[in-house]
Automatic annotation (TrEMBL):
UniProt xrefs under SMART domains: HTH_MERR
Residue ranges of domain HTH merR-type in the record: 32-100
Organism per entry: Streptomyces pini
Record field: compositional bias (Basic and acidic residues): 1-22, 261-272
Comp. bias (Gly residues): 273-292
Protein name: MerR HTH family regulatory protein
């Protein structure tokens, strides 16, 4: 079953909505998000989004009847809040910065920090959320939409519930999960693999950011305006390099693992039937099938 498509716009639900701008002004219409779509794009829960809104950390949304519409400014603000929290700022301090910026007090310093909205916090990901009805979800994952799988997907942040629909955070992840389930891999196993991949991806992101902090900003305790501009330039250059390194290393790792698996299958005793996984998720590590390194009571 295909994803729902808006009859009046020809748009597949899930992508950022667009609102018709002034006719003939030559500008692209602004992208807009419903609540669950905004939360998914920002990588936060709807509960967190509502909390930020109650704390007045976000400007009011545009309202159309009972529907709240958010735009790129709201999305950038949420990413800024996440970045400032990661740097050790408290929500109270962030609220003070936003208030100072909006009321003109210490506008220079606040603007430098909140300038992360267009610099450091510009997204590395290029994901498009997807709106799905329960029927759509069942069509993607026949007989796999269980309460356990839904809970796992919610905990991972892959999906959020918006009324009687579900918003998946990423078209590409949805397509990949659908394809893996189509190959015969249970959805629960796919979601568990996603959890492990998330952990490793977080570790790789930590590695790259620690390299920058340790070698390019040694001893810097608080970023000055010049440091912010330099960091923004560094991150812009780092983005394609980081993605390139991860892509190459994953391809090389898959080559090694496929060769190892083929060699295992060609042995007279066949492939290792153990269920344990070693470091990095490799079969045959500690605790797997009696291989060296298995717990032996010592």
């Amino acid at each position: 079953m295909a994803d729902r498509t808006s009859a009046d716009s020809g748009r597949t639900d899930g992508a950022a909505h667009t609102r018709t701008g002034p006719e003939g002004d030559g500008t692209a219409p602004p992208a807009e998000y419903r609540t669950a779509e905004l939360a998914g794009a920002a990588g936060i829960t709807m509960r967190t989004l509502r909390f930020y809104r109650e704390r007045r950390l976000l400007p009011p949304p545009r309202r159309e009847g009972r529907i709240a519409w958010y735009n790129e400014h709201h999305l950038n603000r949420l990413r800024t809040i996440s970045a400032l929290l990661a740097r050790g700022h408290t929500l109270g301090g962030i609220a003070d910065l936003i208030d100072a910026f909006e009321k003109g007090r210490d506008a220079g310093g606040a603007a430098e920090l909140l300038g992360l909205e267009s610099a450091l916090v510009s997204p590395w990901s290029e994901e498009t959320p997807v709106r799905l009805t329960p029927e759509d979800l069942a069509a993607h994952f026949p007989d796999e939409v269980t309460s356990d799988n839904l809970a796992a997907a919610l905990n991972l942040g892959y999906v959020a519930v918006d009324g009687d629909e579900v918003v998946h955070v990423s078209r590409r992840l949805l397509d990949a999960s659908t394809a893996l389930v189509g190959e015969g891999i249970p959805l629960g196993a796919v979601l568990e693999a996603g959890r492990v991949v998330r952990e490793h991806a977080d570790a790789v992101a930590d590695l790259f950011t620690n390299l920058v902090r340790a070698h390019l900003f040694t001893g810097v305790r608080e970023l000055s305006p010049d440091d912010l501009r330099r960091l923004s330039d560094v991150m812009d250059r780092l983005r394609p390099l980081a993605k390139q390194v991860v892509d190459v290393e994953l391809a090389l790792a898959m080559d090694r693992r496929v060769r190892a698996e083929l060699e295992s299958w060609s042995r007279p005793d066949g492939p290792d039937r153990g269920t344990g996984t070693g470091p990095g998720g490799e079969p045959g590590g500690p605790g797997a099938g009696g291989e060296p390194g298995s717990p032996s009571g010592d």
